[in-house]
Design goal:
Layout (H helix, E strand, L loop, with lengths): L1 H4 L13 E10 L6 E10 L7 E8 L4 E7 L4 E3 L5 E4 L2 E4 L2 E7 L4 E12 L22 E18 L2 E4 L4 E9 L6 E6 L8 E10 L4 E11 L2 E6 L5 E7 L2 E8 L2 E8 L6 E7 L2 E20 L4 E16 L9
Length: 325
């Protein structure tokens, strides 16, 4: 039960096969020149030999991705804390420590995260998935660990020292058997205004006997976090234009409008999980622009309007299927 009430923690200790778990760290320096994503995780396949741990790296500026494979024994997770080690690399809610070199990538350094905004949860609705965390039969679960935070520290990546101090961090995780067959994910916290952050997911959620389209969004503005989701019965309207979307979300007297502005050449192919293997291709950008509006419908007032650079946009499958909400 402790994993249900603490979704950030490792869930796979008792899993033997057909299981994946991965944490996603997206960082941007204060000037917006460098964007990276680091994805530590573990795979447990149908057969023992399929299992391994890994760190996947996405370099937004150079449009490259790296997949670093480790043995399962290289993966260590604390039982009562969010603390993951893979080899000599460590990942927690407050820190990221890298120490790895091979022929393709060198990455060394420590980052510390401050002023972290966690997802507001309750006993009934723990984490960003809420009561879905109590359901044991879903194929994929997710958790927003850090909606927004600032960085202190430097990394040396491929012989280039990058100072990330004053930059932005976002952390989430996924675990289960497979990613949704079709989904789109948007993340933004690099607005000109301070303390603004967005996360949005829309996916075809597989269950044992059926599937449904679910959605989840949170927008941090000033001292409030506005949540729109299938769980709280928000309304949604989705328009799709090639690799871009316009989403309108409505709950009570608030409307959130999210518009992605991605170029095709911004997307990088990374590995995604399916049935215990990282064997599907996922399209991801961490350098896109995303426009966000928050509207007070009762007062007919625009509360916020802004564009975030260095946003994360990821999609897989047939996005048209997501319109059947």
């Amino acid at each position: 039960m402790k994993q249900i009430f603490n979704p950030d923690y490792y869930h796979g200790e008792k899993k033997r096969k057909n299981f994946f778990e991965g944490w996603y760290y997206k960082i941007v320096d204060k000037d917006g020149k460098y964007s990276f994503a680091f994805i530590p995780g573990i795979i447990k396949g149908k057969f023992i030999e399929d299992g391994h741990s890994f760190i996947q790296v996405i370099d937004g500026a150079n449009k490259k991705s790296y997949y670093i494979k480790f043995t399962k024994d290289n993966f260590k997770a604390q039982k009562n804390n969010f603390d993951i080690e893979i080899g000599h690399n460590q990942f927690t809610l407050r820190d990221l420590k890298l120490n790895y070199c091979d022929e393709e990538i060198h990455m060394i350094g420590n980052l510390h995260f401050i002023d972290i905004t966690k997802w507001p949860d309750t006993l009934l609705n723990p984490g960003s998935m809420g009561f879905y965390n109590y359901l044991f039969f879903m194929e994929c679960y997710s958790q927003v660990c850090c909606l927004n935070g600032e960085i202190v520290g430097k990394l040396l990546i491929n012989n280039k020292e990058i100072d990330f101090s004053g930059g932005k961090v976002y952390i989430e995780k996924n675990w289960g058997k497979s990613f949704p067959s079709s989904y789109i994910w948007v993340q933004s916290n690099f607005f000109p205004q301070k303390n603004i952050a967005l996360t949005l997911s829309i996916g075809k959620i597989p269950m044992k006997l059926f599937s449904f389209t679910g959605f989840l969004a949170a927008f941090k503005f000033e001292k409030n976090i506005y949540k729109f989701s299938s769980i709280n019965h928000s309304k949604i309207d989705l328009e799709i234009y090639r690799n871009n979307i316009i989403v309108k979300l409505e709950k009570d007297d608030k409307m959130l409008v999210v518009e992605t502005r991605c170029n095709d050449n911004e997307f990088i192919t990374v590995n995604g999980p399916k049935k215990g293997k990282l064997n599907i291709e996922v399209n991801e950008s961490i350098t896109s622009n995303v426009k966000v509006e928050l509207i007070d419908l009762h007062r007919e007032t625009m509360l916020f309007q802004g564009i975030s650079r260095n946003s994360g946009v990821e999609w897989m499958g047939n996005l048209v299927k997501l319109k059947k909400l």
